[in-house]
Every structure is written in structure tokens, then in C-alpha cells.
Design brief:
- 2 copies of one chain form a homodimer.
- Helices cover about 50% and strands about 10% of the residues of chain A.
- Chain A is an alpha/beta fold.
- Chain A has one domain: Rossmann fold.
- A 5-stranded parallel β-sheet of chain A has the order 2-3-1-4-5.
- The longest helix of chain A has 20 residues.
- Chain A starts with a strand and ends with a helix.
- Chains A and B meet through strand 4, strand 5 and helix 10 of A and strand 4, strand 5 and helix 10 of B.
């Protein structure tokens, strides 16, 4: 029996929907929007600002480099071995988010979507780390259906969103986003179906 | 209901065992050693030679380049649009293997392990393409238990075998071996368990 599931996903793949469905099937807490709300409450920043910043790191800053130099590992923020660089606002928010995500499993079993949660909880026993992806046409159809038409073509919207996620992930984890070996299970939701993906994940979590 | 499953795997991950188990559960044909035997029969080369060559392309030759220049796509060997470069022995064998793997699904539902079968059957409807991997310690334990101790350390044996597979795959497909988006499902067998992986694959194939 697992206690935590993290879900990383390509934009438009249905990973968020899969996460919600898994949480419902298992009766677990679901952290997506709820994570933003918690972070806003604890940090004092607005939900809108946190949400935008969470996928909008446009440069590969020296966060990890500063962290390594300071000898920081495990728990960030305060105390020995903690992060003592001179972080920007994004870095400060990441540290808050890091510490919040580290604490969540202590409150009970949960599903967490995005926010580098796979990396932050990589050493946690009883965790299942999932990556959801799909082919371009499946994702393009899905975002137009869910979020409507925009000035930009669907292909461009997909590319830009995932590019931001890749840069953000690389910046704060040093790892390559979507590399199969970073996860326990990678699913092509376009091929397997969103409902089937949720069923398989819930099944594996209960073993 | 799917009709073909291809399984690519890191050395020592148990992918071959998973494939055999899935084939047994579904009552499907299993092509691993059987593929080598068929190819030996059809080509006249010895099984030993074919087996060694299948994972022993040590250079990135110009096979794909020659193929692209000749306009060859789909079915190789003979006829319009076929491969008419000046292939080496390995290339000739790959063409035979390519054509054999293309024909296999016509004979009935089957599980095929390795040999670039995911790439060769990438456009086939009703196919499920799987990648199996595991962490180093799981794989090291497994190869020592299954294949015994050798002069080389387990870590070195793992690295050398997978390096050959990567080069072979890149050479003949132009794709990156183990990239999650090339498959429908990637499984960490060390984390999920070999039996559970087989169960999930068989379940998804029957949907």
C-alpha cells in the first residue's frame, strides 16, 4: 500500500484529471489547486502570483549551484545545512513550496500534481512517481476542448507551456523532465485512455 | 483488445521475464529466443551469430542515412522504395529481421522482446509498446543471481550491455532508447515488482 502519489504531466495530457480521479478512487487528499491555496495562506503571496510563478521560470538561475555551495540538502530554510544563498523571489517561493510538500505526507495519504513533487519526495518510501504524456494531436484536441480556442495555435500553446515546465524543473532539480528513469510509471494517456491510466495507478497504489 | 506487445528493457530489469509472463497470461506467442531461431532458419546464419550481432552494433553506421537517400520507407528489401544502399552484414541481418517482425502480427497475437520491435511496429494499430527499467542495485542483484558472478563488476556489466543496446537502437531507428515518449507505458520493475508489471501490461492489453 502506497501513501503518496506524485503526478508530473505534459500540458494537455490529462494528468491533472487522472490525479483527481485516482485521489477520488482511493479516498485520498488531492493537491493541485489546494497546494496553491495552502502556499498563498502560508506565504502571504496571492494565489494568482504563485500559480503563474510555478510554471514560469524563464532562466536557469543559479539556485541549485547556490544550494550546493551552501551545503544545503534535505530540508531547506533555517538551521544547519539549509539554503543560505541570496535567493530571488522565485527561489524563496520554491523553498516554501519545498518545505510544504515535504510536510504533506505526514498529514495523510495524498496525490500531488506537478511542482517538482516527484523530485522533492524522491527518497520517501511508499511513494509512487508518475509521468503522464500523450501525442500532440490528443493534447491539442484536449486543450481546445477544455480551455477554448486562443490566438495562438494549439501546437504553439503546448510547446510553450511544456518548455516552461522543463526549464523550471531543470532549474530546481537538475534533472531532465520526462526522463522515464526519474519516475516509477510513465503512461501515454492518449493511447491508454485517461480512465484506464487512473485505474492502473490506483491499482498499483493499493498493492 | 490489443494484438501485439513489444517490450524494450534495460539489462537486468526483468523485462524478458515480464514479457514471458504476459504472453502466458494472455495465451499469446512469445518471441525472444524464438525470433532468433526463426531468423536463423530464414537467413542461414547461426543462432549464436544473430544473437551476438543483435546487441553488438559498436559504431553508428550510415544505415539510416543510406535508407533515407534511397527513399526507402515501410518495407525493406526488394521492390520500389526499398533499401538499395550497400549494406554490411549487420545491415542485411537487420533488414531480414525488420521484415520478419513486420510479418509476425499477421500470424496471431504476440509479445516481442527487444530487437527494435517497438520502432518497427510503431505504426501498427492495436500494439502496446512497453519499456522496462529499474534502479542499479535491483539490476545488479538480479544479473548476479540469474547469470552468476563474472570478472567484471555488475555495474560495469550493466553499463556495457545497455550502452550497446542504445547504440544499436540509435543506429537503426534514429531515436533515443528509453525516452518515455517512444513507448505507451514505462515501468520501474524494481519499484513495482516483476509480477505486478506483468499483471498491469496483461490488463491493459485486454481492454
Amino acid at each position: 500500500m502506497k501513501k503518496v502519489i506524485t503526478i508530473s504531466r505534459e500540458f494537455g495530457s490529462g494528468g491533472r484529471t487522472i490525479g483527481r480521479e485516482v485521489a477520488e478512487q482511493l479516498g485520498w487528499a488531492f493537491y493541485d489547486r489546494a497546494l496553491v491555496e495552502r502556499l498563498a495562506k502560508e506565504s502571504g503571496y496571492s494565489e494568482e502570483f504563485i500559480e503563474k510563478r510555478g510554471e514560469d521560470a524563464t532562466t536557469t538561475s543559479s539556485f541549485l549551484f547556490n544550494l550546493a555551495r551552501s551545503g544545503g540538502t534535505g530540508n531547506y530554510g533555517g538551521g544547519a545545512g539549509s539554503y543560505d544563498g541570496t535567493p530571488g523571489l522565485s527561489d524563496k517561493l520554491f523553498v516554501m513550496e519545498y518545505n510544504l510538500i515535504k510536510r504533506l505526507p505526514e498529514e495523510g495519504p495524498c496525490v500531488i500534481v506537478g511542482r517538482c513533487s516527484d523530485y522533492i519526495l524522491r527518497d520517501l518510501p511508499d511513494a509512487l512517481h508518475i509521468f503522464v504524456f500523450a501525442d500532440e494531436s490528443f493534447k491539442a484536441d484536449r486543450i481546445v476542448r477544455l480551455y477554448g480556442e486562443r490566438d495562438d495555435a494549439p501546437a504553439k500553446r503546448l510547446e510553450e507551456k511544456d518548455k516552461k515546465r522543463k526549464v523550471f524543473y531543470k532549474n530546481y532539480t537538475g534533472r531532465s523532465w520526462g526522463r522515464s528513469q526519474n519516475y516509477d510509471l510513465c503512461l501515454n494517456s492518449g493511447k491508454l485512455g485517461v480512465e484506464n491510466c487512473a485505474g492502473v495507478i490506483a491499482h498499483l497504489a493499493e498493492l
